[in-house]
């Protein structure tokens, strides 16, 4: 804790002390050191006074490198400030430095872990940089032990157990931990001295192991000034990322590019058992506390499993913090050492790494990332947005390394243009079977010709609850591939997000396939068909009919789908499930009138509009829905089959299995029997879209005993003679659209 010898022991210090009392009058006591955080303005006030008067101060500490010298701003550190300012100013009232500037509690927003030997002027620059970077308000307070604790009665502030000290309590109150590293200097210390200090290592380990607090790392670089590595986005970057995906990541990478990552290398070698402290008593207590020994005063053990655990966990934290810049700058930190640090943290349940806009990352670097994944990982989130050097070999290496224990997987390969369906197929085969959440983004990767392998992999995920696929702007994606995706929907799926933005070969048949296969207990649905200009009203009407009754949130984007009209939107609004809590449709660029577009932006306005539609009679019965929202089976059947029969996969098997769709059995409890109106329309639809021979094959005259007369063979444009025909039970084709 530094040399605490009081300046007032010398008679020549009487005037300086009086001057201190005038500059920092006592304001009042604040109970609990954890409530004595200091604002930036208050910190500036203390450091400004110290730098203005330090030329009069002579360093008499026996262990100081400036012993016997008059001090200056260039060497002034917190040990000096404590000796010459804090101790004498607070002695009379036995208070903390913060209590000389405030009588009201000031809870910490951030906890600061640092070394007392760094220059206080550089320390202040780092704090100001953090305030600016994080967008904190002027009243934001930082917990800094030297100013929060009552230095003249320190033994009362620091208890025997480090976990019950004011340090730990303040950390519990704080949003996160700010680790300040000293940079390279002419002094015989540093860089990154906190990595070798017991208190700093203990504080950061507690933040990671017990309190789950985010850790920001900052330092003062001689060339570029203060620089900071943040855990996650800043508020500004988060808003930017939300508005334009990828741009928040880009802003973060640019901001962090000036950080001197070589000083972080020491963090990969941290060893808590070898760390030092000003007070050996503190070091002993910290080690015994980590080892969970009841007697904290006994000599510490040389080795303990908990020492190794703390070391491995800290090394992983520092490795993940610096990984992006290590790739971007190349050669500053050995990549395999980063992977080793992360993979050894077997207690880490989640890994999040963002390499968006990293121009240097390639298949080798992705393989190194893959080698960092230990076999107990539960959550993995990797972003490679616009990393053009990544190809199939990198994706294959990553896919094969996916831990079997994964429950949540997010992979963003947007604009990784070297990827093809060959890499995607391997990923599909390697998806861990226990996944509960899967988010994949392959937008703008036009070399991906097929997603069949991926769809088959998803179909195996029986525990999947959330599926988020962004396959936008894949030039080869068509209705057949949407059918493959639809067939892959796991039955237990609850949240579904699908984006096919800019897939110009997708039409109504693909949309109908997706709609029909929607899981019955779905609660969240988000479809993005923007710029899919082949989609027409019939596709949207299929969505209207098959919306799950359990749906709570429904978002639909049809921007610039020019063939969409109000004739499809109206039945969709009518049939919105009563379970919905939120819904919005984006219809700009369609043929839907602007007033209806505006109504469809909010669920409340759509609910207000729906009763008016019900009163309008059966004007919109052409949609397949009556004014009251019930199904006009004949018309709905005709529209559905018109879309289906255009498929190159449409066969007699498809006809038979299609007859088992709920729409055909709506009036008969799903028995497979078709109403007279439905059968008539079905006959007409088939006659218009297929050869007479195929139509006859579909409607052979097998009789069903005791129920209805046999279905006669159809002829072009002819009506069925039997009022309740029954389709024969024909074996289902592999890729046909059939209910489960």
Brief account:
By secondary structure, the protein is an alpha/beta fold. 37% of the residues lie in helices and 10% in strands.
Structure commentary:
Residues 702-740 are annotated as: Disordered. InterPro entries: F-box_LRR-repeat (IPR050648), Leu-rich_rpt_Cys-con_subtyp (IPR006553), LRR_dom_sf (IPR032675). The protein is of the alpha/beta class and 740 residues long. It is 37% helix and 10% strand. It folds into four domains: 12-306, no CATH class; 354-448, Alpha-Beta Horseshoe (Leucine-rich repeat, LRR (right-handed beta-alpha superhelix)); 477-630, Leucine-rich repeat, LRR (right-handed beta-alpha superhelix) (Alpha-Beta Horseshoe); 637-740, no CATH class. The chain has a nine-stranded parallel β-sheet with strand order 7-8-9-10-11-12-13-14-15. Strands 1-3-2-4-5-6 form a six-stranded mixed β-sheet. Helix 9 packs antiparallel against helix 10 and helix 12 packs antiparallel against helix 13.
Output the radius of gyration: 34 Å
Oligomeric composition of the shown chains: single chain
Please, how many helices?
27
Envelope shape: elongated
Q: Report the biggest beta sheet as strand number plus sense, adding barrel if it closes.
A: 9 strands, parallel
Strand content: 5-15%
Q: How many β strands by DSSP?
A: 15
Report the average pLDDT across residues: 85
Structural class: alpha/beta
Residue stretches low in confidence (pLDDT < 50, at least 5 long) are: 1-13, 618-631, 646-740
Terminus-to-terminus distance: 70 Å
Q: How many structural domains can be distinguished in the coordinates?
A: 4
């Amino acid at each position: 804790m530094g040399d605490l010898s009081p300046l007032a022991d010398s008679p020549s210090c009487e005037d300086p002390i009086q001057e201190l009392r005038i500059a920092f009058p006592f304001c009042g006591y604040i109970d609990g050191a954890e409530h004595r955080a200091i604002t930036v303005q208050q910190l500036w006030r203390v450091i400004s006074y110290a730098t203005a008067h330090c030329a009069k101060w002579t360093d008499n500490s026996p262990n100081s490198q400036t012993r016997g010298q008059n001090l200056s701003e260039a060497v002034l550190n917190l040990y000096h400030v404590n000796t010459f300012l804090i101790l004498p100013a607070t002695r009379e009232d036995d208070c903390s430095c913060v209590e000389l500037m405030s009588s009201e509690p000031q809870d910490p927003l951030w906890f600061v872990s640092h070394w007392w030997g760094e220059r206080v002027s550089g320390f202040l620059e780092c704090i100001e940089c953090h305030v600016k970077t994080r967008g904190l308000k002027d009243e934001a307070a930082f917990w800094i032990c030297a100013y929060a604790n009552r230095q003249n009665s320190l033994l009362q502030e620091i208890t025997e157990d480090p976990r019950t000290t004011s340090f730990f309590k303040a950390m519990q109150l704080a949003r996160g931990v700010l680790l300040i590293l000293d940079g390279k200097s002419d002094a015989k210390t540093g860089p990154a001295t906190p990595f070798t200090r017991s208190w700093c290592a203990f504080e950061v380990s507690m933040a990671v192991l017990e309190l789950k607090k985010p850790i920001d790392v900052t330092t003062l670089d001689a060339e570029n000034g203060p620089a900071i590595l943040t855990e996650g986005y800043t508020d500004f970057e988060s808003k930017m990322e939300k508005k334009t995906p990828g741009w928040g990541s880009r802003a973060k990478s640019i901001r962090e590019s000036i950080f001197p990552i070589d000083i972080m290398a020491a963090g990969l070698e941290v060893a808590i058992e070898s760390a030092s402290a000003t007070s050996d008593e503190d070091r002993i207590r910290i080690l015994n506390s980590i080892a969970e020994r009841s007697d904290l005063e006994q000599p510490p053990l040389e080795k303990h499993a908990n020492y190794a655990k703390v070391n491995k966990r800290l090394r992983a934290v520092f490795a993940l913090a610096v990984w992006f810049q290590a790739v971007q700058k190349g050669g500053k930190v050995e990549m395999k050492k980063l992977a080793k640090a992360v993979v050894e943290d077997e207690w880490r349940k989640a890994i999040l790494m963002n390499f968006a806009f990293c121009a240097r990352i390639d298949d080798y670097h992705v393989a190194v990332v893959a080698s960092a994944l230990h076999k107990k990982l539960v959550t993995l989130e990797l972003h490679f947005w616009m990393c053009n050097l990544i190809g199939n070999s990198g994706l294959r290496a990553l896919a094969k390394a996916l831990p079997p224990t994964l429950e949540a997987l997010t992979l963003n390969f947007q604009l990784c243009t070297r990827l093809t369906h060959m890499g995607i197929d391997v990923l599909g085969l390697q998806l861990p079977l226990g996944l509960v959440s899967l988010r994949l983004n392959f937008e703008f990767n036009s070399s991906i010709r097929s997603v069949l392998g991926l769809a088959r992999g998803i179909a195996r995920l029986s525990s999947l609850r959330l599926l988020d696929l962004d396959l936008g702007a894949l030039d080869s994606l068509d209705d057949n591939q949407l059918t493959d995706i639809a067939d892959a929907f796991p039955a237990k799926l609850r949240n579904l997000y699908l984006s096919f933005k800019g897939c110009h070969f997708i039409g109504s048949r693909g949309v109908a396939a997706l709609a029909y296969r929607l899981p019955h207990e779905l609660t969240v649905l988000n479809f993005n068909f923007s710029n899919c200009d082949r989609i027409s009203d019939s596709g949207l009407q299929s969505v209207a009919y098959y919306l799950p009754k359990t749906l709570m949130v429904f978002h639909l984007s049809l921007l610039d789908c020019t063939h969409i009209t109000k004739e499809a939107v109206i039945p969709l609004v009518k049939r919105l499930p009563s379970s919905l809590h939120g819904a919005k449709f984006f219809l700009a660029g369609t043929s839907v009138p602007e007033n209806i577009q505006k109504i469809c932006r909010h669920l409340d306005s759509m609910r207000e509009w729906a009763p008016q539609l019900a009163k309008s009679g059966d004007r919109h019965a052409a949609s397949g829905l009556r004014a009251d929202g019930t199904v006009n089976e004949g018309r709905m059947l005709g529209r559905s089959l018109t879309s289906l029969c255009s498929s190159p996969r449409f066969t007699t098997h498809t006809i038979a299995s299609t007859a088992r769709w709920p729409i055909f059995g709506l009036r008969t409890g799903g028995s497979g029997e078709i109403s007279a109106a439905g059968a008539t329309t079905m006959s007409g639809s088939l006659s218009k879209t297929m050869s007479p021979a195929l139509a006859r094959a579909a409607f052979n005259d097998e009789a069903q005993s005791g129920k209805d007369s046999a279905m006669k063979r159809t002829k072009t444009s002819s009506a069925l003679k039997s009022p309740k025909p029954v389709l024969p039970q024909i074996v289902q084709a592999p890729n046909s659209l059939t209910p489960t």
